[in-house]
């Protein structure tokens, strides 16, 4: 089950990496320059100043210059993502400028605190602490050290409580900005991990689909190759005996009918794996060594079968692969060994493996070609790939005037 769709910034870029979400405090990846915070600070300062003026706490008339001081700080917040230190300096200067004209109140510190918080989210801790220290020192110089020389009204001078609260507020703003940065980075990492996990799941699904297509292609190759080869042989026999021995030609046609029906049934069985919805239970037994007798009986040539070891139920994929390998090997014998060829199939149940040996008593140049002596064929290559997909091995080649296919398939411990 997959989570909700990924946001645009989590998509894979040209380098094949996921960029992750924009870290809080960075201008890149954010379309808005902080308009919401700027508007909020502006409303706080304008409404607060107006209320203070109505209550008589502003020592000057609210003229254009005073309103400009109240507006310039929130406007500077619009640029805090691109110029965080400058934005904090401008908001602090504007707020301290208005503080020289009104009794101490928290509203005029909204814009500077927002700018300082953002400076903390950028990860520039030194710049944040230095900026806060300079601003705090300037505030103390103006309102404590030089308040008399510059002629500040006594009503605007802060007490010890206000001085301490301003300092604590600055420390808290920087601290919360750092926490926000850490949280943002953690969220970015979580999203990146989720995106990579989704990509891995999709890659696994594509790989599984590719393996399934390859498996179906092998199944179809084995089914069609085996039965069409048998049909071709029987058709040749029927044509050859049509005039001289019509009764044997009839047997050949009957064998063709049986082989074609079996081929159609097996093709439908293979393709049925593609239709899993509302699929009825299979009515035919699964392909495996339990059907080895019928396979050798319909091979189109004499086949001797020998089974050794303690027979047991094999894993389904091993059982099916063993059946297909024997089928393909007998098909190769019928195609390449020439007329009058015979074959033998040996099945040996080992404690942790299954050994197959398919051998015929004659070998032709075509058989050598099929194993790589000339233009490569697909028969032995397909059998070898099928065995290797299960962790097994396959060896094939001429031996003692014949041709041997030897296969070892792991089956797990014999319990």
UniProtKB/TrEMBL annotation:
Broad class of enzyme this protein falls into: transferase
Cross-referenced CDD domains: HATPase_UhpB-NarQ-NarX-like
Domain Signal transduction histidine kinase subgroup 3 dimerisation and phosphoacceptor: 212-278
Keyword Transcription regulation: no
Source organism superkingdom: Bacteria
Catalytic reactions of this protein: ATP + protein L-histidine = ADP + protein N-phospho-L-histidine
EC number(s) recorded for this UniProt protein: 2.7.13.3
Residue intervals passing through the bilayer: 56-79, 86-107, 127-147, 159-180
Keyword vocabulary terms for this entry: ATP-binding, Coiled coil, Kinase, Membrane, Nucleotide-binding, Phosphoprotein, Transferase, Transmembrane, Transmembrane helix, Two-component regulatory system
Entry-linked InterPro entries: HATPase_C_sf, Sensor_HK_TwoCompSys, Sig_transdc_His_kin_sub3_dim/P
Pfam family, any one: HisKA_3
Name of protein: histidine kinase
Organism this protein belongs to: Paractinoplanes ovalisporus
Lineage of producing organism: Bacteria, Bacillati, Actinomycetota, Actinomycetes, Micromonosporales
């Amino acid at each position: 089950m997959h989570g909700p769709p990924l946001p645009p910034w989590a998509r894979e870029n040209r380098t094949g990496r996921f960029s992750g979400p924009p870290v809080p405090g960075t201008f890149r990846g954010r379309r808005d320059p902080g308009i919401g915070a700027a508007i909020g600070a502006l409303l706080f300062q304008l409404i607060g100043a107006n209320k203070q003026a109505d209550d008589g706490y502003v020592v000057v008339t609210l003229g254009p210059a005073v309103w400009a001081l109240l507006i310039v700080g929130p406007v500077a917040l619009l640029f805090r993502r691109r110029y965080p230190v400058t934005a904090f300096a401008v908001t602090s200067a504007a707020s301290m400028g208005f503080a020289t004209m009104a009794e101490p109140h928290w509203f005029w510190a909204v814009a500077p605190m927002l700018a300082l918080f953002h400076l903390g989210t950028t990860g520039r801790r030194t710049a944040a602490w230095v900026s806060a220290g300079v601003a705090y020192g300037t505030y103390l110089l103006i309102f404590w050290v030089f308040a008399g020389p510059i002629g500040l009204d006594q009503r605007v001078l802060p007490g010890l409580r206000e001085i301490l609260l301003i300092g604590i507020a600055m420390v808290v703003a920087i601290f919360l900005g750092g926490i926000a940065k850490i949280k943002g980075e953690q969220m970015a990492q979580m999203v990146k991990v989720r995106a990579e996990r989704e990509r891995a799941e999709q890659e696994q699904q594509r790989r599984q689909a590719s393996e399934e297509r390859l498996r179906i292609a092998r199944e179809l190759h084995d089914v069609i190759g085996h039965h069409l080869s048998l049909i071709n042989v029987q058709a040749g026999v029927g044509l050859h005996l049509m005039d001289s021995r019509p009764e044997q030609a009839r047997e050949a046609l009957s064998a063709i009918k049986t082989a074609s029906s079996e081929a159609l049934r097996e093709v439908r069985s293979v393709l049925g794996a593609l239709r899993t919805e509302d699929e009825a239970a299979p009515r035919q037994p699964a392909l495996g060594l339990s059907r080895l007798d019928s396979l050798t009986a319909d091979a189109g040539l004499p086949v001797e079968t020998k089974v050794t070891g303690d027979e047991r139920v094999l894993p389904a994929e091993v059982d099916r692969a063993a059946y297909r390998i024997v089928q393909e090997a007998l098909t190769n014998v019928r195609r390449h060994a020439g007329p009058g060829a015979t074959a033998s199939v040996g099945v040996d149940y080992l404690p942790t493996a299954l050994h197959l040996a398919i051998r015929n008593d004659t070998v032709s140049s075509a058989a050598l070609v099929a194993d790589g002596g000339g233009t490569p064929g697909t028969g032995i290559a397909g059998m070898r790939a099928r065995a290797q997909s299960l962790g097994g091995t396959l060896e094939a080649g001429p031996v003692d005037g014949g041709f041997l296919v030897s296969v070892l398939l792991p089956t797990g411990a014999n319990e």
